[in-house]
Amino acid sequence: MDYADASGKLADYRRRIAALRAEMRDLQDRAEPQPVEDYVLQSTTGEVRLSEAFGGKDDLIVIHNMGRSCPYCTLWADGYNGVYEHLADRAAFVVTSPDSPAEQAAFAQSRGWRFPMLSHRGSSFADDMGYRGDNGWLPGTSVFRRDTGGIVRVSDAGFSPGDDFCSLWHFLDLLDGGRRGWRPKYRYG
Length: 189
Fold this sequence. Notes:
single chain; six-stranded mixed sheet; two-stranded antiparallel sheet; 38% helix
């Protein structure tokens, strides 16, 4: 197929994806929020309740990260660093993982991460939110809102290579031959 024809067809696909996203947004707006308990998580300074992670915001974005052992989760987290201030202007934002708070702090420092982290170790938080499978932890995000009756989850989404939560995949897909089996690493070069 010639370049102009392919480009036009790709533009049509992107319009269709945008329309599908609008339908997804509408469905999400109509979904009944899910009440959740005020889980106790851990920080480097001690226990932190989920309600405290909201800070002064009404909305909270929680990332379910698999921890320092996962180069994919590290790739996603490296990306949050660039958008953290933008996100934090609209909603509270925190990354959770099964790693201990000390392990999280050391790894975050080695990566230059600026966002807050909490450990769900010792709690059922990730399990209850659906981010633990037969083979261990699963990556994704849950979004919560303060409600008059407590805390409710208003949406969630799992992560996987090629998803919309890491722009790198989409840049790689534009290359001749696409990803060609590329996998993230902790260090390059």
